[in-house]
Design a protein that fits this description.
about 80 residues; Mth169, Chain: A; three-stranded antiparallel sheet; 2 helices; about 30% helix; ATP binding; ligase
Amino acid sequence: MARVVVDVMPKQEILDPQGQAVANALPRLGFQGVSEVRQGKRFELEVGDDVDDATLDKIAETFLANTVIEDWSVRRIES
């Protein structure tokens, strides 16, 4: 078994209202120096050793991310 992490983020040109809300709240809470926040999603999958990178890419692209507005990346985590 292997652990795989898929990170999904809004594309840079897409407005991110959740990220903006966090960025706007930080100074009010006393945290300075953060100029931008982008909020995304993280998926952790336990997969069999026979699941190849092409299959993982297909899962991310067709099921986990909306590729019109989101970018994604897949990485295996060493156990």
